[in-house]
Amino acid sequence: MACEESITTRIHHRAIPPIYLSYSNQTGFIERYFVVKLYEQLVGSGLGEGVIWFDHHQGIHPDKSATWFADRLEAIDLSIASILILSNACQHQRLMTIESKAIADRKLLSGTSTVYGLFVILLDECHDFQYLRSRADYFYAFNKTDSMSEVGERVSMILKELLTKLIPYKQFSSIQNNATMYEHKINEEEPKQLCSWTAKDIQSFITRVGVQQSSRDIFVEKQIDGYLLLA
Questions:
Q1: Alpha-carbon 182 to chain mean position
Q2: Which SUPFAM superfamilies match (predicted)?
Q3: In this structure, how many other beta carbons lie within 10 angstroms of the beta carbon of residue 11?
Q4: 222 pLDDT band (50/70/90 cuts)?
């Protein structure tokens, strides 16, 4: 039975969405409720299944998988962006500290030539995580007054700007899937592998599949070619 459950978990895990949602399930009710409400709002805004990794929907958590933490670290490694939700309580949790460092390292190792995104939300005054500010593409720290607001109000404070930052990553995920299909078509016409596409080839392709100009500009800025797209 345990073996079957592990196999099922791994099958789900192979289809990891591109945006990793990092949070602690060992904090207080309000903090966990914030994560759930934020996730619901992101889903309602079109960033649901196939975009946001939420381990309770995948069966990857301590109650059901002995490989829970290894699966989370692997999800970080395979993601193209991370939403990191932290609080003062997280500073005293060793696993959360390791996970946040893994995300920061993932961002750092991606360098300036890729589109890997880091979006940080501090729920309270957790000073040990302030070093993430310089690395983050989006950083929001709730002050004491904000922290007294209802959870729904706090989610509303960040949702619009966060969505603006996240939407291009949903499109990037679609590009990865479409590129694989498009590569087969290209190969029938001319022997050119996706890894050898130039930045100009990528621009031509994402224009053809209908990617918005704002997202295409990101590819130009980062000089994304076929090799980087695969990476």
A1: 25
A2: Toll/Interleukin receptor TIR domain
A3: 10
A4: confident
β-bridge mates for residue 126, sequence order:
none
pLDDT of amino acid 22 = 92
Relative orientation angle of helices 94-110 and 68-78, to the nearest 10 degrees: 20
Tell whether the model's pLDDT for residue 190 goes beyond 70.
Answer: no
12-49 confidence digits (pLDDT tens) = 444 556 899 999 878 888 888 999 999 999 989 888 77
Q: What is the pLDDT of residue 63?
A: 56
Q: Looking at this protein, which amino acid is placed at residue 181?
A: M
Mean pLDDT of 92-118: 82
Amino acid, single-letter form, for residue 207? T
State the burial class of residue 92 (Cβ atoms within 10 Å of its Cβ: 0-12, 13-18, 19+).
exposed
Provide the β-strand partners of residue 85. 121
- The full set of domains in the chain, from first to last, is 19-174 (3.40.50.10140), 197-230 (no CATH)
